[in-house]
C-alpha cells in the first residue's frame, strides 16, 4: 500500500519541470543581446574604416532607430519587412530542426512569387475570397514542389541539400529572367522585364490606408501570425513534427524508431519550401503587386540568419524576423538621412549570427556576463 | 571481414546487388540519352557542322573539322543505345562508370554538332575559354580539398573568392597587379584563419560558419563598393594580368592556345594543383594533415596538434581561394562588381566532391564545369533554338547531376564536418 | 624503466575520476589493473600517456618527476598506449600508421616510406608479429590491427606498454596468441600494464594485480594467492553472484524463424550467409561471435532495418521478410539496439520524448495528427519508476543520464509493452555491474513470462550465463549451436567455433 503511494510520489516528482535555469536565460537572452551590441559596434568600426566621420555614425544609428520604431510609418515598414522574413525563416527553421540546411529559400521565394503573380493577374472577376487564397496557395505549392526537388535528391542520392539548393537558387534567377521575357507575362504594351499587375481581388489588402495612404502594412501580417502558430503546433505537438525533430537530431535513431527517413526529408523540404513560396507570394501580392527582376531581394538569405537567430524556434523566428525587419526599415532611413549604404545592414546581420552561433566566442569577449561554465553542461 | 563475392553463395538464388541496380539506372540513363539524341539532335538537323581548330594567324594551320550533322548524330544515338542496352541487360560490372562517362561525352558532342549544324564554330576558342572558366572553380575546389582533408567543411569558399576578387580590385588599383594579388591571397588566408577560429576554437557549426562568412563578405564588399567605389572610381580600376605565351609550347596547334597561351592564373592553378598533390600525398605534413581529417583522435594521441593542423590547412585553403578570387578582377576585367563570383565557389565544392577530394580530381571536374560554362557562352553567340537563360543554367544543372550522381560513391574524409573536442 | 604514480587526482567537474592513486610499474613485469566500467582505469592511463593532465599528484620515471603537457609527451618519455578503440587511420597502410608523427623524411619533406617499411619489418621479426607493412588497415582483421598498434608503440621505442581492454575484440584463441606476444614483450624487458575487467584473464597474465574502484585503488595482490571471487568483491565492493536467477526451461511454440537468410552490406559483400534458426517462446537464444561477423546485420535484418537479399523471416507465423521495422515492432518485437548512443536514443531529447521514441504513433499516445503529451508524461514517469531510471526529472535531456540509466531507459521503453520477442544486442556493453545485473534480471523476467529472447553479445561470459541455446556466428554463417538443456556447454568448444574451427 505505502509502496504504491511511494511510487506515485516519485512519479509526481519526476513530472515536475525544473525552473528554467541560468543557462537557458544566458542562451536565450544574454547571448542575443550581446550579439546585437557587438555587431553594432563592429558596424561602427567599419564605417570609421570607410572614412565616415563619428558624427555621421551617430546620426546613422539614430536614423536606424528612428526608421525602425520612431513613427507609425516606421513601425508599418518594420512589420512589412518582417513578414516575408518570418515566413521564410519559419520554413528554414523547420528544415534545420529536421537536419536539413536549406539555403534555397531565395529560389523558393522566386518560384512561389512567380506562381502567385501568374494566378494573381490571370483571373479577372473572381471574388477575393477565392482569388486571394488561390494565389497564396499557388505560391506555397510551387515553392514546396521546387524545394522538394532538393529533398528528393537528398533522399534518393544523398546529394547534400546545401549545394543543390544553391544551384536551384541560381537556376531560379535565370528562370525569372526568362519568364519576365515572355510576352504573356509582360505588362501590356511594354517590353521591359516587368510582369503584369496583380488584379485587386488577389491583392493582400493594406490595413492602415485609412490613417495614411502611404502606410504599406498589409494583411500578410495575419498570415505571418497564423504560420508562427501553425509551425509551432506542427513541430512540437504533432507526430510528424516529432519525426522531423527526431530525424534532425539523430537520423540513425529515427530509422531505428521506424520513421521513414526519405519521406521525412521530402516532406520537411516541401513544407519549408511552401513557407518560402508563401513569402514570395506575400511580396508580390502585398507589396510589389507585380514581379520584377530580383524581386526576392535577398530575403531568402536574410531568412537564414533569422532562423539561426531565432534558434529554429517559431517564436524565436518571429522575434528575430521583427528585429531584422527593423534593421531593414531603419537601414533605409539611415541611407536617406546619413548617406550610409544600406549594405551595412547586411554586415551587421552577418555579425549577429556569428555571435549567436558561436556562444563560446561571446563568452570569450564578455566573460563577466556569464556563469562559469559548469562542466556537466552541454554546449 | 566477409569479403566473399556474390558468386560464392551456393544457394543460387537471385539477389539484387547495389551494383546491379546502379547498372540498370545507368542503362536507363544511356537509353534516354539515345532517344534524345536520335529524336531531337539527329532528326531535327541538316547540313554540316564546322569546327575551326586554329586561327588564321597561327604558325601551323590545322584544317577545319567538318562533321555531317545528321549522320553523325544517328551514329552517336546508336552507340548510346548499344551502351545503354549492355548496361541494362547484363549489368556492366566494372565497365559501368566508363560507359556512363563515354555516354555523356558523346551525347555532348552530338549536342554541339546539332547546335552548330550549318554554321561554323571555333573549337579551340571554346576549349581555351573552358580552361579559363575552370580556373576559379578549380581553385575553389582545391581550397575545398585542402580544408576538407583536415575535416573542416568549407562552405565559405564563395565568400573567400569574393573577398579575393574585391581585394584584388582595391589593392590592385593602389599597388598594381602583383601587390593586389598578394593582398588578395593574404585576405583569403585571413578569412581561412577566421573560419578555422570559428569552427576549431569556438566550435561553431561548420556549415553555419561558412554561410555566415560568405554573408559577411557579401555585406562588406557590397557596402564598400556602394559607399566608396561609386564615389572614388580610381579605387576600382586595377591592371589586368594579360595572357603570357610560353615560347614554342604556345605554338603547338590546338594545345598551344588552350594550355600555353594563358594568363598567370591558369598557370598558377596548374602549379598549385601539382603542389597540393605533392604536399598531401608525399610529404610528412601532408600525411599528418590527412590523419587529422580521417581520425583526429588517433593523430592527437601521436602528438600531432589537431587544432594547429586545422588552422594551418584551412588558412592555406583560404589563400588558395583568395588567389582564385583575384582571377575575377585581376585576371579578367580589373573591376569589382557586387556579388561577381555568382556561386562559382559552390560549384568549386561540387568539383571537389566529383574529384573525390583529390586536387587533380577537382581540377578535372572543374574543367568539365568550365566546359559547360564556355559551351553556354559560345552557344549564346551561335543562335540556337534554346533560350539563352536555359543555356546559362547548364553549369548549375551539371553541378546538381554531379553531386547527385557521385556523392554517394566517393568517400569523404572520415571526420569531415565533425568538430574535434580535446579530452 | 620503472614508472611511479604518486597521489594522482583527476576531476571532471563534480566527478572525481581518480582519487589519490598510487601505482608502481616495473620493467619486465605485467601489472594487471582491474576495475569495472567507470572505475577510472582509462582516466589513469590517459594521464600516464599525457592525454590528460592530473589535478594533483606526480608521475616519476626512474625516480625522477616528469611533467606531461600533451599527448606526445608520454610517448616521448617511453610510455606507449594501445587504446581499447584502436587509434588507427583506416585508409592508411600499416607503415603509414606506424610512422605517423615520427616520419622518416627525405629532401623537400618527402615521405620516406621505403625506410618505414624496412623498420616495420625489423620490429615484425624481432617479436614475431607478422604484419604486412603495405596492407590497408581497414582490410585487416581486428587481431592484426591490434598488432599494428603494438608495432606503433614499439616503433617509438616505448619501454612501458599500456594495454587498455585489449582482449575485448578477440576470440578466445586470438587471446591465447595475444598473451604469447605480451609475454615475449615482458621477457624482452618491457613493462606492461594490462587493463581489464575480466577476472580470469588477469589471473592468467598478470604478475601483480591492482584493483581500482570509484577512482581509488581498493586492492593489491599476487595473482597466485587470489581467487576470482575475491577479486570480484574488491572490484565491485560487495559480494557478487555470477549466477543469473531463472525459472526452469519451458520452451513453447516457435515465434521467429529465419530461413537461408542472406544479407549484403553496403559494399555488396555478404554479411550474413544463409543463416537459418528459430526462437521459441520462453527461451533465451544467445548469439556468440567476435564483433563484425555479421551479428549486427543479422539483427538489423530481423528487426526490419535492413533488407534481406534472399531467404525469409517469419514472425508469429507470418512472413515478415518485407515488413517494415514499425510493423514488426507493432507485432510485439522489442529491439534493444547495439549502440544506444548511435540509434537507441536521442541525447538532445528529453527523457519522456525518448520513452516514446518508437511508440509515439500508437493510439495511446496520439489522436489524429497530434501527440497526447500529458499521456506521454504520465507513462514516461511510470516507466522511469518501474525501471529504476535515476533522474531528478523526466524533462531532463537523455544525454545527461549516466550510461546505465540511459540503457535502463531504452530497455524500459522496449519491455514495457505487449512483447512477444525481445531482441537485445550488446545489452550491457559499457555498463557498471549494478546496471548489468538489473538488465539481466529484466531480460530473464521477460523469458519467464513466455517471451522469446535473442541476445547478441561479444562477452562470451554473458552469453554463457544467460542463454538456453547458443548460436555461434563466424564470417556471416551460423557455424555451431549448443544446447544448455542437453548439459553444460564447453566454453572452449564455443571459443573454437567463434574462431571458425569446426568441432
Question: Could you describe the 3D structure shown?
Answer:
- The complex is a heterotrimer of chains A (379), B (423) and C (503).
- Chain A has a domain at 84-310.
- Chain A is 72% helix and 0% strand.
- Chain A contains 15 helices and no strands.
- The radius of gyration of chain A is 23 Å and the shape is globular.
- By secondary structure, chain B is mostly helical.
- Chain B is 67% helix and 4% strand.
- Chain B has helices at 18-42, 69-90, 96-116, 123-148, 157-175, 177-201, 206-229, 255-259, 264-282, 284-294, 296-301, 306-333, 344-354, 359-381, 388-392, 394-406; strands at residues 48-52, 65-68, 120-122, 244-245, 261-262.
- In chain B, the strands form 2 sheets. A 3-stranded mixed beta sheet of chain B has the order 2-1-3. Chain B has a two-stranded antiparallel sheet with strand order 4-5.
- Chain B is globular and about 65 Å long.
- Chain C has helices at residues 41-48, 71-76, 94-99, 113-127, 142-155, 172-187, 199-205, 228-236, 295-302, 325-330, 340-344, 351-355, 373-386, 403-415, 433-448, 460-466, 491-498; strands at residues 3-12, 15-25, 30-34, 56-61, 64-66, 79-82, 160-164, 191-196, 208-213, 216-221, 254-264, 270-280, 284-288, 310-315, 318-319, 333-336, 366-367, 370-371, 421-425, 452-456, 469-474, 477-483.
- In chain C, helix 14 runs parallel beside helix 15.
- Chain C has 17 helices and 22 strands.
- Chain C is 32% helix and 25% strand.
- The two termini of chain C are 45 Å apart.
- In chain C, strands 6-7-8-3-9-10 form a 6-stranded mixed beta sheet, with helices on both faces. A 6-stranded mixed beta sheet of chain C has the order 16-19-20-13-21-22, with helices on both faces. In chain C, strands 2-1-4-5 form a 4-stranded antiparallel beta sheet, covered by helices on one side.
- The interface between A and B is large, with 49 and 44 residues.
Amino acid at each position: 500500500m505505502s509502496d504504491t503511494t511511494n511510487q506515485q510520489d516519485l512519479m509526481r516528482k519526476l513530472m515536475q519541470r525544473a525552473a528554467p535555469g541560468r543557462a537557458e536565460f544566458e542562451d536565450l537572452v544574454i547571448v542575443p543581446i550581446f550579439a546585437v551590441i557587438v555587431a553594432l559596434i563592429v558596424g561602427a568600426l567599419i564605417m570609421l574604416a570607410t572614412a565616415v566621420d563619428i558624427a555621421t555614425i551617430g546620426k546613422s544609428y539614430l536614423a536606424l532607430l528612428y526608421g525602425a520604431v520612431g513613427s507609425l510609418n516606421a513601425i508599418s515598414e518594420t512589420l512589412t519587412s518582417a513578414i516575408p522574413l518570418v515566413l521564410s525563416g519559419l520554413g528554414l527553421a523547420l528544415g534545420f530542426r529536421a537536419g536539413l540546411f536549406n539555403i534555397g529559400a531565395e529560389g523558393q521565394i522566386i518560384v512561389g512569387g512567380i506562381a502567385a503573380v501568374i494566378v494573381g493577374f490571370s483571373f479577372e472577376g473572381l471574388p477575393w475570397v477565392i482569388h486571394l487564397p488561390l494565389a497564396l496557395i499557388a505560391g506555397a505549392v510551387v515553392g514546396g514542389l521546387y524545394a522538394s526537388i532538393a529533398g528528393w535528391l537528398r533522399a534518393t542520392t544523398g546529394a547534400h541539400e546545401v549545394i543543390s539548393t544553391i544551384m536551384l537558387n541560381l537556376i531560379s534567377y535565370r528562370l525569372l529572367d526568362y519568364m519576365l521575357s515572355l510576352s504573356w507575362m509582360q505588362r501590356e504594351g511594354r517590353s521591359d522585364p516587368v510582369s503584369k499587375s496583380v488584379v485587386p481581388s488577389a491583392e493582400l489588402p493594406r490595413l492602415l490606408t485609412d490613417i495614411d495612404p502611404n502606410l504599406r502594412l498589409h494583411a500578410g501580417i495575419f498570415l505571418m501570425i497564423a504560420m508562427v502558430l501553425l509551425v509551432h503546433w506542427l513541430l512540437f505537438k504533432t507526430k510528424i513534427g516529432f519525426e522531423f525533430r527526431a530525424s534532425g537530431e539523430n537520423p540513425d535513431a529515427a530509422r531505428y524508431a521506424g520513421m521513414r527517413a526519405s519521406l521525412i526529408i521530402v516532406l520537411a523540404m516541401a513544407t519549408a519550401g511552401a513557407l518560402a513560396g508563401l513569402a514570395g507570394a506575400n511580396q508580390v501580392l502585398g507589396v510589389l503587386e507585380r514581379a520584377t527582376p530580383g524581386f526576392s531581394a535577398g530575403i531568402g538569405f536574410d531568412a537564414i540568419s533569422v532562423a539561426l537567430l531565432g534558434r529554429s524556434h517559431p517564436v524565436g523566428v518571429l522575434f528575430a524576423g521583427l528585429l531584422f525587419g527593423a534593421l531593414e526599415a531603419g537601414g533605409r532611413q539611415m541611407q536617406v538621412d546619413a548617406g550610409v549604404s544600406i549594405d551595412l545592414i547586411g554586415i551587421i546581420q552577418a555579425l549577429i549570427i556569428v555571435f549567436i552561433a558561436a556562444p563560446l566566442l561571446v563568452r570569450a569577449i564578455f566573460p563577466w556576463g556569464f556563469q562559469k561554465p559548469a562542466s556537466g553542461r552541454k554546449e | 571481414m566477409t569479403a566473399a563475392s556474390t558468386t560464392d553463395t551456393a544457394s543460387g538464388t537471385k539477389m539484387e546487388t547495389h551494383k546491379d541496380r546502379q547498372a540498370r539506372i545507368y542503362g536507363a540513363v544511356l537509353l534516354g540519352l539515345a532517344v534524345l539524341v536520335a529524336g531531337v539532335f539527329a532528326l531535327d538537323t541538316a547540313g554540316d557542322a564546322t569546327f575551326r581548330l586554329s586561327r588564321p594567324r597561327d604558325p601551323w594551320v590545322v584544317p577545319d573539322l567538318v562533321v555531317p550533322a545528321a549522320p553523325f548524330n544517328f551514329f552517336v544515338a546508336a552507340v548510346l543505345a548499344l551502351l545503354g542496352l549492355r548496361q541494362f541487360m547484363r549489368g556492366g560490372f566494372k565497365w559501368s562508370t566508363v560507359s556512363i562517362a563515354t555516354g555523356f561525352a558523346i551525347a555532348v558532342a552530338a549536342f554541339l554538332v546539332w547546335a552548330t549544324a550549318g554554321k561554323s564554330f571555333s573549337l579551340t576558342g571554346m576549349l581555351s575559354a573552358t580552361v579559363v572558366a575552370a580556373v576559379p572553380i578549380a581553385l575553389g575546389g582545391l581550397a575545398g580539398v585542402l580544408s576538407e582533408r583536415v575535416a573542416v567543411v568549407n562552405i565559405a569558399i564563395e565568400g573567400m573568392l569574393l573577398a579575393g576578387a574585391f581585394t584584388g580590385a582595391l589593392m590592385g588599383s593602389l599597388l598594381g597587379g602583383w601587390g593586389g594579388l598578394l593582398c588578395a591571397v593574404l585576405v583569403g588566408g585571413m578569412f581561412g584563419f577566421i573560419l578555422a577560429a570559428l569552427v576549431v576554437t569556438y566550435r561553431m557549426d561548420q556549415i553555419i560558419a561558412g554561410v555566415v562568412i560568405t554573408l559577411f563578405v557579401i555585406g562588406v564588399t557590397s557596402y564598400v563598393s556602394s559607399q566608396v567605389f561609386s564615389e572614388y572610381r580610381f579605387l576600382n580600376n586595377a591592371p589586368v594580368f594579360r595572357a603570357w605565351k610560353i615560347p614554342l609550347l604556345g605554338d603547338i596547334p590546338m594545345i598551344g592556345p588552350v594550355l600555353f597561351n594563358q594568363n598567370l592564373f591558369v598557370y598558377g592553378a596548374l602549379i598549385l594543383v601539382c603542389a597540393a598533390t605533392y604536399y598531401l600525398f608525399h610529404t610528412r605534413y601532408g600525411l599528418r594533415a590527412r590523419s587529422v581529417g580521417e581520425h583526429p583522435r588517433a593523430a592527437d594521441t601521436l602528438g600531432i596538434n589537431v587544432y594547429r593542423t586545422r588552422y594551418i590547412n584551412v588558412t592555406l585553403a583560404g589563400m588558395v581561394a583568395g588567389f582564385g578570387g583575384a582571377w575575377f578582377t585581376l585576371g579578367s576585367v580589373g573591376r569589382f562588381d557586387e556579388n561577381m563570383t555568382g556561386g562559382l565557389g559552390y560549384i568549386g565544392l561540387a568539383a571537389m566532391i566529383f574529384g573525390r577530394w583529390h586536387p587533380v580530381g577537382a581540377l578535372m571536374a572543374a574543367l568539365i564545369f568550365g566546359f559547360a560554362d564556355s559551351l553556354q557562352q559560345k552557344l549564346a553567340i551561335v543562335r540556337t533554338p534554346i533560350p539563352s537563360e536555359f543555356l546559362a543554367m547548364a553549369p548549375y544543372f551539371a553541378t546538381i547531376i554531379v553531386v547527385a550522381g557521385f556523392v554517394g560513391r566517393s568517400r569523404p574524409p572520415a571526420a569531415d564536418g565533425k568538430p574535434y573536442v580535446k579530452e | 624503466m620503472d614508472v611511479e604514480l604518486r597521489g594522482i587526482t583527476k576531476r571532471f567537474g563534480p566527478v572525481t575520476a581518480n582519487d589519490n592513486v598510487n601505482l608502481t610499474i616495473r620493467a619486465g613485469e605485467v601489472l594487471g589493473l582491474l576495475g569495472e566500467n567507470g572505475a577510472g582505469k582509462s582516466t589513469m592511463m590517459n594521464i600516464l600517456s599525457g592525454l590528460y593532465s592530473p589535478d594533483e599528484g606526480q608521475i616519476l620515471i626512474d625516480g625522477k618527476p616528469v611533467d606531461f603537457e600533451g599527448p606526445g609527451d608520454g610517448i616521448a618519455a617511453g610510455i606507449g598506449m594501445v587504446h581499447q578503440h584502436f587509434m588507427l587511420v583506416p585508409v592508411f597502410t600499416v607503415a603509414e600508421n606506424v610512422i605517423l608523427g615520427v616520419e622518416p623524411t627525405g629532401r623537400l619533406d618527402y615521405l620516406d616510406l621505403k625506410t618505414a617499411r624496412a623498420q616495420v619489418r625489423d620490429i615484425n621479426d624481432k617479436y614475431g608479429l607478422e604484419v604486412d607493412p603495405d596492407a590497408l588497415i581497414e582490410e585487416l582483421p581486428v587481431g592484426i590491427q591490434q598488432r599494428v598498434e603494438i608495432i606503433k608503440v614499439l616503433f617509438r621505442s616505448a619501454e612501458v606498454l599500456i594495454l587498455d581492454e585489449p582482449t575485448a575484440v578477440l576470440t578466445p584463441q586470438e587471446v591465447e596468441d595475444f598473451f604469447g606476444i605480451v609475454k615475449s614483450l615482458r621477457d624482452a624487458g618491457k613493462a606492461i600494464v594490462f587493463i581489464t575487467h575480466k577476472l580470469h584473464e588477469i589471473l592468467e597474465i598478470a604478475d601483480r594485480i591492482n584493483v581500482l574502484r570509484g577512482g581509488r585503488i581498493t586492492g593489491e595482490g599476487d595473482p597466485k594467492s587470489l581467487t576470482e571471487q575475491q577479486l570480484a568483491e574488491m572490484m565491485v565492493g560487495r559480494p557478487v553472484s555470477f549466477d543469473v536467477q531463472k525459472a526452469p526451461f519451458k520452451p513453447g511454440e516457435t515465434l521467429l524463424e529465419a530461413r537461408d537468410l542472406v544479407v549484403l552490406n553496403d559494399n555488396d559483400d555478404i554479411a550474413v550467409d544463409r543463416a537459418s534458426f528459430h526462437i521459441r517462446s520462453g527461451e533465451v537464444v544467445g548469439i556468440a561471435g567476435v564483433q563484425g561477423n555479421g551479428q549486427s546485420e543479422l539483427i538489423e535484418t530481423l528487426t526490419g532495418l535492413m533488407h534481406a537479399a534472399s531467404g525469409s523471416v517469419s514472425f508469429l507465423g507470418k512472413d515478415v521478410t518485407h515488413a517494415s521495422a514499425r510493423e514488426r515492432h507493432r507485432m510485439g518485437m522489442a529491439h534493444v539496439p547495439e549502440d544506444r548512443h548511435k540509434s537507441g536514443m536521442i541525447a538532445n531529447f528529453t527523457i519522456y520524448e525518448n520513452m516514446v521514441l518508437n511508440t509515439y504513433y500508437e493510439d495511446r499516445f496520439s489522436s489524429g495528427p497530434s501527440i497526447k503529451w500529458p499521456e506521454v508524461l504520465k507513462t514516461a514517469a511510470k516507466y522511469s519508476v518501474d525501471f529504476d531510471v535515476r533522474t531528478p526529472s523526466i524533462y531532463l535531456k537523455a544525454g545527461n543520464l549516466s550510461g546505465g540509466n540511459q540503457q535502463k531507459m531504452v530497455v524500459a521503453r522496449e519491455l514495457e509493452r505487449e512483447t512477444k520477442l525481445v531482441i537485445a544486442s550488446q545489452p550491457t556493453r559499457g555498463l557498471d555491474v549494478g546496471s548489468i545485473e538489473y538488465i539481466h534480471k529484466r531480460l530473464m523476467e521477460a523469458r519467464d513470462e513466455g517471451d522469446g529472447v535473442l541476445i547478441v553479445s561479444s562477452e562470451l561470459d554473458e552469453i554463457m550465463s544467460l542463454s538456453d541455446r547458443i548460436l555461434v556466428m563466424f564470417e556471416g554463417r551460423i557455424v555451431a549451436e549448443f544446447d544448455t538443456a542437453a548439459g553444460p556447454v564447453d566454453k572452449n568448444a564455443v571459443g573454437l567455433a567463434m574462431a571458425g574451427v569446426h568441432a
